[in-house]
Amino acid sequence: MEQPTKIMIEKKLQLVLEGKMTREEICEWAADFIRNDESILMNDISAWHYLIAISNIDEMIAPNKYLFSVNDIKNIMHQY
Fold it and tell me: What gap in Å lies between CA 68 and CA 25, rounded to an integer?
């Protein structure tokens, strides 16, 4: 299994920002790779760190209130 590229991750995050994909869906997508890390062909460690950074953007701190705001997600995208 090949790891997602930064471009693939960014496209998924853009779908979240556009409301076309939920935070939970992208976190599950990221978690599938992270859980199977022993079978991932890692060729870009920065993309791997990007994947880990987005893997918990669905965490809630209160009902209907996410830990990471839209601006936080944009900052993560900018960072990577």
Answer: 15
Instruction: Report yes or no: 8 and 80 within 8 Å, Cβ to Cβ.
Output: no
Cα 38 from Cα 25, distance rounded (Å)? 22
CA torsion sign for 43, 38, 11, 73 is negative
What's the pLDDT tens digit per position in 21-69?
Answer: 999 999 999 999 998 877 777 789 999 999 999 999 999 999 999 999 9
Task: Output phi, psi for 25, to 5 deg.
Answer: -65, -45
**Rg of the chain (C-alpha set):** 12
> Closest Cα to residue 58, out of 25, 24, 28?
24
Whether the predicted model's global pTM rises above the 0.85 cut: yes
In sequence order, what are the beta bridge partners of 41? 2
